[in-house]
Every structure is written in structure tokens, then in C-alpha cells.
Write a structure and sequence with these properties.
The chain has four helices and eight strands, in the order ααββββαβββαβ.
Length: 251
């Protein structure tokens, strides 16, 4: 009996030591996240932060000697412009219309030109064969006679998501590409019936192979990849890719 009680006491002491060690652990001395800290540990951390003293001479931002990082000026810019001289002194506010020139400063601005939709109307000559009398119509890349189609450069390289009109019922997001004024619906993404995964479909509601996917972003990536591959394929004679017989309406 004494041996049994001794064993129980040793086990109890070991358990007490284990619990005391757990009580003393927080995010500062273990891998536990700060959100799991006890109120006492959070108060201790706040007190330590409040005791930190920042030098009054220290200025915000990078400190002297810090290498820093950023854009390097292009040696050969696409174009060079000269700004209009300042009309008012930044010190006293005086008029600088008759002021003496004092040299030049410089800056570079990196930006992307505004996207503009270009409409090209093609005339397609027809020729009738003198042998078989068949008429052949000229063709252009991504164009078919009697239709309005989107060209190679209007593709899902940059895609934005927009809630579909029936979103409240189906939870469907439309994937739009192209200029904001003339967007193309390149497909849709939505949750599956189980609600834990995502599927992607073409504008014709054909499911994209490989789904469903774990996240909406994964479904969107596979949709974009499928549409890019479709854009690179030759057009079907029966149905042009991403075509419309009327100017698209703004969504």
C-alpha cells in the first residue's frame, strides 16, 4: 500500500510541475501565439512596451547608414518632359515670374499608359474561283466575316471579379477582363454544392477541367489559364471565340 501511495504522490508531483511550467509560458518564451496569452501575460507585455523610450533625436523612417531599397532611375527613359517652373516661392510665397533660373532637379515617374479599346473595321475581299466557282473570303487573325470579335490582346491577363446579378441566390462571381468600359465575361466561379470548394465555368457554363478547387483564387487561376489557352487556339468556323453580334453593354 505504501508503495502504491508513493507512486501516486510522485505522479501528482510531476503533474503539478508540468502545470506550473505551462502557466509560466506565454508568447514571449514559447511558440504559443499572442492571442492565447493569459490576461496577466498581455498586461505584462503592454507594460514592457510602454517602458520603451525612443530617442527624441531619432527621426521617423530610415536611419543614417541604412542602405535602403527602391526604384533605380532608368538610364534611357521612354520619354523626357520638362515641368512648368514654379510660380510661387515655397519659402515666402513671392512671385517667381521674373526670378533667375537656378538649375534643374529631376524625378522619374513609372506608370502604365491608359488602356484604350481600339476598333478596327476590316474589309474582306471576296474572290470567285474560275475553276470551281467557289467564293473565298479573305480572313484576318481572330476575325470572321459578318461578326464582331475580340482580338488577341483582349484576354484574361488581368481579371477582376464582380458579383453576378443572381449572386444572392447562387453565390456566383463573374470574371471580367478587358477595358472597364467594354468588359468581357470570361467565365464564372462559385462554391460547389458542398460549399467548401470552388468550381469554374466558361461563359457557356462548361465546367473547367481539374476542379473543384480549395479556394476561389485557385478556381480563378485555372479559369484564366483555360481562357488563355482558348484564346491562342484557332477560331471555330461555327462559333467565334468571345464574339458578340452587338456592342457589349457596360456591366
Amino acid at each position: 500500500m505504501v508503495v502504491g501511495l508513493t507512486a501516486q504522490l510522485a505522479a501528482a508531483q510531476a503533474r503539478i510541475a508540468e502545470l506550473e511550467a505551462q502557466v509560466g509560458k506565454d508568447s514571449s518564451n514559447s511558440s504559443s501565439p499572442p492571442s492565447r496569452d493569459s490576461p496577466a501575460a498581455k498586461g505584462k507585455r503592454r507594460a514592457q512596451r510602454s517602458q520603451r523610450v525612443r530617442s527624441k533625436d531619432r527621426k521617423p523612417g530610415g536611419q543614417p547608414g541604412h542602405a535602403g531599397s527602391g526604384l533605380m532611375p532608368a538610364a534611357v527613359p521612354d520619354r523626357t518632359e520638362t515641368a512648368e517652373p514654379a510660380g510661387q516661392c515655397s519659402g515666402c510665397g513671392g512671385d517667381l515670374a521674373e526670378a533667375v533660373a537656378a538649375g534643374m532637379a529631376w524625378c522619374q515617374v513609372w506608370d502604365i499608359p491608359a488602356v484604350r479599346l481600339e476598333t478596327v473595321h476590316w474589309w474582306l475581299p471576296k474572290r470567285r474561283c474560275g475553276c470551281c466557282r467557289k467564293t473565298t473570303t479573305a480572313s484576318v487573325p481572330f476575325g470572321q466575316a459578318g461578326t464582331v470579335t475580340y482580338g488577341l490582346n483582349v484576354n484574361p491577363d488581368t481579371v477582376r471579379l464582380q458579383r453576378s446579378p443572381d449572386y444572392d441566390l447562387t453565390g456566383t462571381w463573374r470574371a471580367l477582363a478587358g477595358p472597364a468600359g467594354h468588359p468581357i465575361v470570361v467565365g464564372t466561379v462559385r462554391r460547389t454544392g458542398l460549399g467548401k470548394q470552388w468550381e469554374a465555368r466558361t461563359p457557356e457554363l462548361v465546367a473547367i477541367n481539374g476542379g473543384p478547387w480549395r479556394t476561389r483564387q485557385d478556381a480563378l487561376i485555372h479559369l484564366v489559364q483555360d481562357r488563355q489557352q482558348a484564346t491562342a487556339r484557332p477560331l471555330s468556323k461555327s462559333r467565334p471565340l468571345l464574339s458578340t453580334n452587338a456592342p457589349p453593354r457596360q456591366s
